[in-house]
């Protein structure tokens, strides 16, 4: 079937049924991910003009590589699958784009060659590729993880195995995934004296995507490790606390309700998940011609305004816990701000928000409007 995306044309094997395209080599649901990738590459090149080489490490149809090559990146497409490699070659040719195409295990390639930008987009966890990527990427590492159940603690053992951390299944599950992934990548990078700074991260539908600016310096690796810590979550009243530092000081009893059903997660990334200015640059770089332009810009806008707190609340879940009907999110946030707290929407979904108020303070600040 023929697919058009970001101004390029692809031929991918598969059937088009009722407008939904299905192919093992091309996932239309990842178009937002790819549009943001291209916008991020453009914004990053403004920031770091010497960045030239881009490795599409898991090329499949070659869609990312073709789109980057059309933007004048010096592209290498790699895939371990023979059919994918042939397809990527055809799609490059179809769009008059040049790139090096490698048919091999990308871990071996990354250990042999250094790239300015590496894009990891595997099925499931990216961690088997993390060591080779962080040690052989000069400037920007782009990573997708689609194993959201292990990341958020729903598949606990798998999460522990893949990420060498303890994830917990909470009401902020997508954010748990973001922070477990960033923690694991920061720790992998630190082993090679590389520091990571997440300049853009989002959790969208069934994946987490992050862009890490790398600094090859032990002090930068130390600074990234300083962003790690633990999260404690009360299953009864939804109170949560962040505990910075690698040495955990676990909560035994909830300071809000006295409950003892406390979940402990970590090490997680407690630092910022994006650079606001960079996200604004990305938003401004998204052209109208991108299929997901509106969605991409909206996502960037929410990310720019989102507070840095390491967990978000779900307003509906809180109100259910209090046995009260939820009101409009704008009114709810206005009450928090009027009471002197910070409040923002979160990009994790319609009823999610962030605040510096504790669960008890939220209850008090919004009581008049909800009761
Ligand atoms: C999710 S698909 C990539 C999708 C593509 N990047 C896109 O945006 O449409 C994952 C690809 O990774 C490839 N892959 C898996 N393990 C690999 C490895 N060790 N080295 C290179 N490619 C690998 C698979 O063959 C598959 O084509």
From TrEMBL:
Annotated positions binding Zn(2+): 234, 237, 254, 257
PROSITE patterns: SAM_MT_TRM1
Gene3D superfamilies to which the protein is assigned, alphabetical: N2,N2-dimethylguanosine tRNA methyltransferase, C-terminal domain, Vaccinia Virus protein VP39
GO biological process annotation, one example: tRNA N2-guanine methylation
Keyword annotations: Metal-binding, Methyltransferase, RNA-binding, S-adenosyl-L-methionine, Transferase, tRNA processing, tRNA-binding, Zinc
Keyword Repeat: no
Reaction(s) the record says it catalyses: guanosine(26) in tRNA + 2 S-adenosyl-L-methionine = N(2)-dimethylguanosine(26) in tRNA + 2 S-adenosyl-L-homocysteine + 2 H(+)
A Pfam family: TRM
Residues the record lists as binding S-adenosyl-L-methionine: 34, 64, 79, 105
InterPro entries xrefs: SAM-dependent_MTases_sf, Trm1, TRM1_arc_bac, tRNA_met_Trm1_C
Enzyme Commission numbers on file: 2.1.1.216
Enzyme class: transferase
RNA-binding listed as a keyword: yes
A GO MF term: tRNA (guanine(26)-N2)-dimethyltransferase activity
PANTHER family xref list: N 2 ,N 2 -DIMETHYLGUANOSINE TRNA METHYLTRANSFERASE (PTHR10631), TRNA (GUANINE(26)-N(2))-DIMETHYLTRANSFERASE (PTHR10631:SF3)
Family membership: Belongs to the class I-like SAM-binding methyltransferase superfamily. Trm1 family.
Cross-referenced NCBIfam families: PRK04338.1-1 (NF003327), TRM1 (TIGR00308)
UniProt cross-references to HAMAP family, sorted A to Z: tRNA_dimethyltr_TRM1
Purpose of the protein: Dimethylates a single guanine residue at position 26 of a number of tRNAs using S-adenosyl-L-methionine as donor of the methyl groups.
Protein's recorded name: tRNA (guanine(26)-N(2))-dimethyltransferase
Species annotation: Natronococcus pandeyae
């Amino acid at each position: 079937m023929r697919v058009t995306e970001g101004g390029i044309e692809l031929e991918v094997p598969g059937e088009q049924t009722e407008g939904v395209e299905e192919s093992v080599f091309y996932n239309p649901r990842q178009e937002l991910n790819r549009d943001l990738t291209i916008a991020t590459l453009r914004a990053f090149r403004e920031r770091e003009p010497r960045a030239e080489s881009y490795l599409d490490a898991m090329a499949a149809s070659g869609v990312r590589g073709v789109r980057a090559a059309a933007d004048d990146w010096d592209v290498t497409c790699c895939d371990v699958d023979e059919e994918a490699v042939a397809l990527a070659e055809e799609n490059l040719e179809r769009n008059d784009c040049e790139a090096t195409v490698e048919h091999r295990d990308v871990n071996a390639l990354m250990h042999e060659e250094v790239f300015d930008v590496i894009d990891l987009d595997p099925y499931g966890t990216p961690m088997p590729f993390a060591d080779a990527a962080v040690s052989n990427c000069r400037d920007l590492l782009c990573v997708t993880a689609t194993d959201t159940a292990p990341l958020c603690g729903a598949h606990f053992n798998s999460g522990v195995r893949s990420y060498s951390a303890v994830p917990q299944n909470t009401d902020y599950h997508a954010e748990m995934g973001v922070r477990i992934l960033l923690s694991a990548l920061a720790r992998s990078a630190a082993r090679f004296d590389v520091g990571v700074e997440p300049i853009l991260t989002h959790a969208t539908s069934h994946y987490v995507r992050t862009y890490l600016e790398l600094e090859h310096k032990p002090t930068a690796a130390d600074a990234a490790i300083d962003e790690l810590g633990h999260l404690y979550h009360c299953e009864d009243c939804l109170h949560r606390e962040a505990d910075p530092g690698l040495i955990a000081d676990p909560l035994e009893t909830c300071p809000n309700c006295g409950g003892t059903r406390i979940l402990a997660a970590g090490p997680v990334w407690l630092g910022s998940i994006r650079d606001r200015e960079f996200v604004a640059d990305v938003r401004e770089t998204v052209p109208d011609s991108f299929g997901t332009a509106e969605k991409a810009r909206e996502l960037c806008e929410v990310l720019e305004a989102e507070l840095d707190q390491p967990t978000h609340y779900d307003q509906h879940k809180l109100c259910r816990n209090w046995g009260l009907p939820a009101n409009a999110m704008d009114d709810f946030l206005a009450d928090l701000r009027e009471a002197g707290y910070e409040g923002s929407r979160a990009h994790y979904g319609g009823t999610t928000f962030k605040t510096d108020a504790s669960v008890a303070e939220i209850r008090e600040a919004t009581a008049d409007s909800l009761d």
